[in-house]
Amino acid sequence: MLETLEIRRLLPGSPHLTLVAKWQYEQWGNLSPKTSQEAWQEELLRECSFDGIPAVLLALVKGYPVATASLVEADMETRRELSPWLASVYVLPEWRGQGVASRLVRKVECEAQSMGITRLYLFTPDQQALYHRLGWKDKETLDYQGVSVSILTREFASRRGQSVSDTKYI
Questions:
Q1: Residue 148 belongs to some domain of the structure
Q2: Nearest to 29 by CA among 17, 42, 40
Q3: Which of 114, 104, 110, 109 is nearest to 85 (CA)?
Q4: Which of 43, 98, 119, 143 is the most exposed place for a label (fewest CB within 10 A)?
Q5: Average pLDDT over residues 69-84
Q6: What range(s) does the N-acetyltransferase domain occupy (predicted)?
């Protein structure tokens, strides 16, 4: 089934914007307790762009959204000096364990490389094993909004100006 997986960059007018905002809010809203789902969607809308950072990617199988990931300048209020970030990697439960997250992460890495970025950060409370398999390294562990999280980093060669991906849009 993954042979039909396609990854597209989410644009502001996408019909999937509300769904992606719902996924993200339900998954990580607890890290921003003063934020409503509507405010979350407005922020997501600001992250949808045609190129550069920020970027929101959506994985689809036969046109059906199954996962999302983002590339953002800042993802932790307390660690603004670290930038940019792989963020908001979410896969529908029925699609987990099938390589969807790995494909999304690799796509974000390719997008970053094409912009000349040589280092990315992410934080996760519980998916360290996935990211370690993909070559990410531990940076530190800390308490963030009452949750113990690990910050990981990934370094790679710059490919600024090289076409490393065939980005499509939705």
A1: yes
A2: 40
A3: 109
A4: 143
A5: 94
A6: 5-155
